[in-house]
Amino acid sequence: MRSRQDSYTRGWLAEYLAAGYLWVKGFQILTIRYKTPLGEVDIIARRGEQLIFAEVKYRPDLDEALYAVTPQAQNRIMRAAQLFMAEQKNMSLSARFDIIAISPPFFIRHIENAWQPRS
Questions:
Q1: Which residues contact 117 (CB under 8 A, 6 or more apart)?
Q2: Residue 96 is part of a domain; what is its CATH number?
Q3: How many domains is the chain built from?
Q4: Is 55:97 a contact under the CB 8 Å cutoff?
Q5: Nearest CA to 98 among 54, 34, 46?
Q6: Whole-model pTM?
């Protein structure tokens, strides 16, 4: 049980570290841990006329973190993103999907436009 709690805490800290990173890059953080019955988005942020839906992964190695975002995870994130955009009545912004990989001690790799929505 201890390792599950440790993983939860590491994930929570990684998401807030990633949000701070995006904020420094000029993004307005709209929400962290947006949860729906269809899926979850770790961070939703906005800069100008663009929304980003970011998946944050913390792993011992940056490449391992990037590969942890599976096609199934991408689908869940996209479904949650569609719901978020549908809820925003006056928001006609472009959207993209990013991955923010974090590894110890504080290495961050931000992959912009990491995948495209499938039709």
A1: 78, 97
A2: 3.40.1350.10
A3: 1
A4: yes
A5: 54
A6: 0.90
